[in-house]
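Q: I'm writing up a methods section and want to include an example of the input and output format. Could you take the sequence below and give the corresponding predicted structure tokens, formatted cleanly so I can copy it straight into the document?
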Amino acid sequence: MTANKQDTLRTRDYGFFGPGSPSWKVWSSPTSLIGFQRAVVLEHFDPFLAAAVADMRGIYRNPAGRLDRTLAYFLTIAVADGHTATEASRLLMRVHAKVSGTEPISGLAYSANDPASQLWIHLTGWHSVLKCYEMYGPGPLRADEERRYWEECAIAAHLQTCDPADVPRSRDGIRDYFAAMRPRLCTSERAHEGMHYLLRTPYASAGAGFWAISRMIAPATIASLPQWMRTLGGFDQPKLLDGITPPLARIAMYFGSWPVLKVAALRYSAPGTARIMQQHHRSPAPANPGTVHPQPLRDTRAAMTPTAAREGRTSGAVAASARG
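A: Here is the clean output for your methods example:
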């Protein structure tokens, strides 16, 4: 059956990575749902991002819709054609350009488009989905695939306000980045509220589908985290649960890897993401059966970054001063 225009994400080209790429494999795996929960929880350890989330209150007013749109965005960047992914990025940066305020712990200004915070979001997202793909999915990528995965992570960074040159290109580089970030991370009352809300979203706020999914995958998310993060975030769990969760999650993810079941499960918790996933699996070959590069977007990125971020008054200034 031929897909019509509304059924495909790829009318022009294969996007930035293309068929057979590790990014397509990892981001279209059902394990990406666990990885996404892991990432949005970790983001709260950055006090500037925690302040932005707390001030906007978007996840509390409409957690299912807000998180569905975010996951759909990440999946779009990974599998859509270049034009579709670029337009999604431009829209997101315009929305972020309106989000700014004062981080209460330091008293410094924050903006959602700040390059240092955007790098933290980008790397926690790409690292978390790979971590959960390894733990609960097919397992580790081949060495050549992993090298390519981190190169693709750097390519995708062109769609953020961070500098792609700052993206590590290896597992060791990612470890070094997290080690450098650890002294700057903290928790607070508002960060604690956000992390626990995302791990176990109340039924009254999210509805049955999202409520059930958040609780079902929370043990797998926590099991994937190092002890210091669990302690700092106050969401540790018994060792017995750590032991039984991975094999159960691997069984669930095996059956969830079937496209029909994957899309059906997403419809109950993340319908927007389900549409993107369905289009990904149904899309025919595009007009140009090749890949493109997002470099042209860099020309407009600076205009969408608030002046405060460019002048270094946000968390980027904190990162720079910490580097000496």
